[in-house]
Design brief:
Elements lengths: L2 H5 L20 E5 L2 H4 L12 H6 L17 H15 L3 E5 L15 H16 L3 E7 L5 H5 L7 H17 L5 E6 L1 H9 L11 H25 L4 E8 L2 E3 L4 H22 L6 H7 L10 H5 L5 E6 L3 E5 L8 E3 L15 H15 L4 E5 L17 H19 L4 E7 L18 E4 L4 E4 L1 H9 L4
Helix pairs in contact: 4-5, 5-7, 7-9, 8-9, 13-14, 14-15
The protein binds 5-hydroxymethyl-3,4-dihydroxypiperidine (IFM).
The site of 5-hydroxymethyl-3,4-dihydroxypiperidine has 8 residues, from loops.
Length: 459
């Protein structure tokens, strides 16, 4: 079934609109956020510098020269933000924890003020009927750890376990759902090979060592979370893309396979006990990571769920000499978001079905899905983000299809609740269902938020 098929066959402007009743009564409906992108309060209550503070201060690193120092001021405005989540009818909320609020690198105990903030935040979620989904690492590594080698250093794995231990001890009586890492591919490749995310490094071998330590820290954290959290549900969130070859030529098809080896199997194979894919290991040559005995078993610790972050399919062409694997991504054709990302709802169903078929990961959750558009606040204060509303509706229609086909998807988190700091794009890109006026910090529901609220039966 094509994307167009999903929209055909019914009268009216929103044919085949999905309904909440198409999903199980226990299905989770949430929004996702991350600490550095929304919290602000960059120097409050003992928070220390993160790699994103340092990177953002580098001239030219962030398109609008901004940083997350104030962001959405969620650190102070979280009651209002959680009220919005409740009023939309969400039953779950995904957030991440800023490691630099918890450990300052002096070797002392965790910072009580940082722990207290997340404790209050979690209480606020529970009071509003929002099931808390905590992500331990969404990219804001303390700078003091980067100064000691960052994720390329094996000692960062131990530091992560201390952090995971502190957080699960403090919140484990109220938070059952834990995501160890968000999008390890981005941590490794965007931050350490492509250099357009913090810490801004450009070495492929470093990136693969980073990926290995991130996966290792995940695997070692799984039993630790279970030990500290009664009835823990622990998993990881990967950013995954369905792939298309640029043409049917054997060269492009082979290029797509190589790309898939690094983008998809490099992470999923070890998580599900298969080790690093042999063909990709051979292709990366000397850049392969140092792996110690026992690492691969640790990485393959059984999990309770897999988080899938879906945005768009990638089209791959053979490009000898380009990048570590001689591949190149082609610009999108057809409908795109303001970031040039293809709009392809059917890719979500295709991706979930593939992961289920390839790995049988058990319950899956769409832990991120969303779109960036150039939203405008109208004279009447309304934000008519028709494209995002349609994006959301069409992706939920695709999700409905995946569920109907028997793919064990149990929840959906829209990215994002609020407009926020979009990493190296700064505040130029808006992904929120809720508009944020950064000058006044006023929040306004966009039409997409109103559509989600109606979908959830909370009108
Ligand atoms: O904003 C990011 C998020 O932090 C991680 N996943 C993709 C989103 C949109 O780029």
């Amino acid at each position: 079934m094509t994307n167009d098929d999903l929209l055909q066959g019914a009268a009216g402007p929103e044919p085949h609109a999905p309904r909440r009743a198409n999903f199980g009564a226990d299905f989770l409906w949430g929004c996702a956020t991350s600490s550095y992108q929304i919290e602000g309060a960059g120097a409050e209550d003992g928070r220390v510098e993160s790699i994103w503070d340092r990177f953002a201060a580098t001239p030219g690193a962030i398109r609008d020269g901004s940083s997350g120092h104030v962001a959405c001021d969620h650190y102070h405005r979280w009651p209002e933000d959680l009220d919005i989540g409740r009023d939309l009818g969400l039953n779950a909320y995904r957030f991440s924890i800023a490691w630099p609020r918890i450990f300052d690198g002096t070797g002392g105990r965790p910072n009580e003020k940082g722990l207290d903030f997340y404790s209050r935040l979690v209480d606020g979620m529970l009071e509003r009927g929002l099931q808390p989904w905590a992500t331990l690492y969404h990219w804001d590594l303390p700078q003091w750890l980067q100064d000691r080698g960052g994720w390329a250093a094996r000692t960062t794995v131990d530091a992560f376990l201390d952090f995971a231990d502190a957080m699960t001890r403090r919140l484990g009586d109220r938070v059952s759902h834990w995501i160890t890492h968000n999008e390890p591919w981005c941590t490794a490749i965007l931050g350490n090979y492509e250099g357009w995310h913090a810490p801004g490094l450009t070495d492929f071998g470093t990136a693969l060592q980073v990926a290995h330590h991130v996966l290792l820290s995940h695997g070692k954290a799984v039993p630790l979370v279970r030990a500290n959290v009664p009835d823990a549900k622990v998993g990881i969130a990967l950013s995954l893309h369905p792939l298309r070859p640029a043409s049917t030529s054997p060269r492009d098809v082979a290029a797509m396979e190589r790309h898939d080896g690094l983008r998809y199997r490099w992470f999923l194979d070890p998580l599900y006990g298969r080790g690093y894919p042999a063909a990709t290991l051979a292709q990366v040559g000397d850049a392969a990571p140092v792996v110690l005995p026992g690492d691969m078993d640790a990485i393959a610790a059984p999990t309770d769920f897999l988080g899938v972050n879906y945005y768009f399919p990638e089209t791959v062409a053979d490009a000898p000499g380009h990048g570590p694997l001689g591949t190149r991504l082609l610009p999108a054709e057809g409908e795109t978001t303001a970031l040039g990302w293809p709009v392809a709802p059917q890719g979500l169903a295709e991706l979930l079905a593939r992961v289920d078929r390839d790995y049988r990961p058990g319950p899956m959750y769409v832990t991120e899905n969303g779109a960036c558009y150039d939203d405008v606040v109208g004279a009447d204060g309304a934000v008519r983000d028709t494209q995002r509303r349609r994006y959301l509706m069409r992706h939920l229609a695709a999700l409905r299809q995946a569920v109907a086909d028997g793919v064990p998807v149990k929840g959906y988190f829209a990215w994002s609740l609020l407009d926020n700091f979009e990493w190296s794009e700064g505040y130029l890109r808006r992904f929120g269902l809720v508009h944020v006026d950064y000058a006044t910090q006023q929040r306004r529901l966009k039409d997409s938020a109103k559509w989600y609220r109606a979908f959830l039966g909370h009108d």
